[in-house]
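Sequence in, structure out.
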Amino acid sequence: MEDCSGWRNKRNAKRKGHTIVAASRFIVLLFCLNGTVIHFASAQPEREKEKIKAVILKETVSFMNVDHKSWSDQWLHVPYAYWTYADSSGSTFIDGWSAIDKTYESYFKDQKPSNAKITDEWIDVRLYGNAAYVRFIQKQTDNIDVDETSQVRVLEKSNGVWKIVHVGVVVKYPKR
């Protein structure tokens, strides 16, 4: 009987060669995909930050335009929603969405839309999974003067949409 070991060795060497080529192609594919994933992953937080800023801007503009429905739509209607405000006369807070909505009921009935120009200087936008922390300076300019406030927002992503759960506002006064 003829020795087939030489034939088997050639066949195994050929298989190993195909395996090495296939493995090399796979590794190259992984590197290509990895670059795509890294690029997508680095772009994704920036897109989320822009969505968050848009929610904050819409909440502010809706409030200034006395548009209750649009303003309310930017909030997550939960019992742990929280609103705070401080100026030279003191500070106040409202605990829970129902109380926040009720507090502003008369504002949305009686107030006239504002013509103030609003600009935001974004200081920090941090993502924590389905939560975000945002800090910014807001300037509201009307025909009389400029109001500058330091503001904080905390948002949660609910059903794929960013919603506000906390508004914190501190009025900045000119240095004396």
